[in-house]
Amino acid sequence: MNERDLRVEVEKQRSMTDEEWNYLHEKWFVDEALEQPFDEEQAQYLIEELDQLPGRARKSQTPEREGLEEAFTQSEPFAVKLTDAETERARWLLKIQVRNAVEDPHVVGFRERYLPNGLLSHVEAEEFLRSSDAREVAVAASRLKKLHGWHEGDAAWWMLTGEAPSTRPVRVSYRENRGWHSPALYLITMEAPPWISVKTFADAFPEMKRRMHAERKLPNARAYRVARFVEARLHKAGANKPTLDDMRREWNRENPGEKFPDYRTFRRAYDRLPVERITHPPYTTEIEREVTPKMQRQFDRDRKKYARAAQRFKDAGSPVSKEIPEAQASAGFTSRQQR
Prior knowledge:
- By secondary structure, this protein is mainly α.
- It folds into three domains: 3-65 and 292-338, no CATH class; 84-161, no CATH class; 221-279.
- 56% of the residues lie in helices and 7% in strands.
- It has 18 helices and three strands.
- It has helices at residues 3-11, 18-26, 29-34, 39-51, 56-59, 84-102, 105-114, 122-129, 134-148, 152-161, 198-211, 221-234, 244-254, 263-271, 275-279, 293-315, 326-331, 335-338; strands at residues 68-75, 171-179, 185-191.
- Strands 1-2-3 form a three-stranded antiparallel β-sheet.
- α1 crosses α4 and α9 (134-148) packs across α10.
- It is flat and about 85 Å long.
- The chain starts with a helix and ends with a helix.
């Protein structure tokens, strides 16, 4: 895909001005997008960068996604701690999976066609993943993910280099949707085979909550009832908005067992649970994550991208942009990862 085709694909999903396109081009986001292995990934990469621009929250969306600012799923935020027995079983199972995968007809066929001289070095594998044949390894990796539960990136790397995926029988991910016209949505997903102990599985959930800065303890049921009671009356269509003291008296009539003696106590009960805490809870998705081999390879790719960008600036006779600090380039983080 060339730059013109890329812009056409992006504008099928997002409206975009010439100024915005030029900005993305000047900041090397277009070049980075074109380095993605698949056409759909190139377009999605640029869409994600486009949506980060100031003032894009409302106008950047297509009609069927109008109002949706951000929606993504993040996998493997941290490594779940296993017992010694679970670790040994996971390692043994991985060896069996690898032994079977080597004999898989799809794997055999792929390696005969694309790796006639044997497995690749890390450098050669990186070059392969940037080539036009990368789609073929992705197809085979998708099959291995379905059969063995491996992550596609790890499966593709094994196809090319023979390095076995990491043993991660328990997987945690989160989904986050933040929109203009709906409450924020945060969902934690956990997967585990039946042989994982209940304790190992159960311990992973509070750890994920801790990293997201979620509530340790919910307010009592009365606080929720009061908040719902007040909100229902504040948003009642076609009615005059009652005062908080009017609502307190109505509450006392309907809930004789939970009366509030005065306005102040009713107000404190309502203020204890503001609606924003329910609709837009202060969770964080900037979760510390273990640097897996797959992530490290991505960091290395990003470091090379910044090095190439710096060289282009130098060749053009311009100083290296201050927006690509040396520390960021050496760490290998992309702009999106920094955000």
